[in-house]
Design a protein that fits this description.
By secondary structure, this protein is an alpha/beta fold. It has one domain: P-loop containing nucleotide triphosphate hydrolases (Rossmann fold, 3-Layer(aba) Sandwich). The chain is 46% helix and 15% strand. The strands form two sheets. It has a five-stranded parallel beta sheet, sandwiched between helices. The longest helix is centred in the last third of the chain and has 15 residues. It starts with 5 loop residues before the first strand and ends with a helix. The relative contact order is 0.17. The structure holds zinc ion.
Length: 218
């Protein structure tokens, strides 16, 4: 039986990795492994890994790399060779990339392709700065050019829209800065291995998906 693709979807916050990962999951029939979803799962279920992560979060500390790596590898190693997977939100630094490579080397073969969605900083600031949430039902909303949160209501329930502290201008700048400093070096790691595909990500969801599929030869 054919072996499933092993992919990493890489890009800054606001690049649309989650959306692209879902499209790829549907067309390539691979397992979508989102680090954010996995964390929420472990925390919500109170698993052993979740409790380990929570210890740090309760103290207001960052969850150490080793715990994050264990949470992701635990999932990756459960995916069969035939199935394949697409990683979204991991690895976030070169150490995580090395640990992923070691684990996969022990499991027949490595990452086939790293899809790097490149988005310019002004476009990221525009996208991330436009994120609002309904106060009543928590539905996410994207505010377009010239729209303001005060006059726009929730599409789902008519509730009031507000911006989370995480999505405020200072927090957004900080997230991009952390990405540039800690996560960007991962690109060099994969470039050396000849598996990197750069995709311009300022376009529409459909156009980006088309270019990703072309890069994968699918
Ligand atoms: Zn609502």
């Amino acid at each position: 039986m054919a072996q499933g693709l092993r992919l990493v979807l890489f890009g800054p916050p606001g690049a649309g990795k989650g959306t692209q990962a879902q499209l790829l999951r549907d067309s390539l029939k691979v397992t979508h492994i989102s680090s954010g979803d996995l964390f929420r799962h472990h925390l919500g279920q109170g698993t052993e890994l979740g409790l380990r992560a929570k210890e740090y979060m309760n103290k207001g500390e960052l969850v150490p790399d080793e715990v994050t790596i264990d949470i992701i590898l635990d999932k990756i190693l459960s995916v069969s060779d035939e199935e394949g997977f697409i990683l979204d939100g991991f690895p976030r630094n070169p150490h995580q990339a090395e640990e992923l490579e070691k684990a996969l080397n022990g499991k027949s073969r490595n990452i086939d392709k790293v899809v790097h969605i490149e988005v310019s900083e002004p476009e990221l600031l525009r996208r991330l700065g436009g994120r609002y949430v309904c106060r009543a039902c928590q539905a996410p909303h994207a505010l377009g050019e010239g729209e303001d949160a005060a006059s726009k209501k929730c599409d789902q329930c008519g509730g009031e829209l507000y911006q989370r502290d995480d999505d405020g201008p200072e927090a957004v700048k900080k997230r991009i800065e952390v990405y540039n400093q800690e996560t960007m070096p991962v690109l060099g790691f994969y470039r050396e291995r000849g598996v990197l595909a750069d995709i311009p990500g300022d376009n529409t969801v459909g156009q980006v998906n088309k270019q990703v599929m072309e890069a994968l030869g699918a």
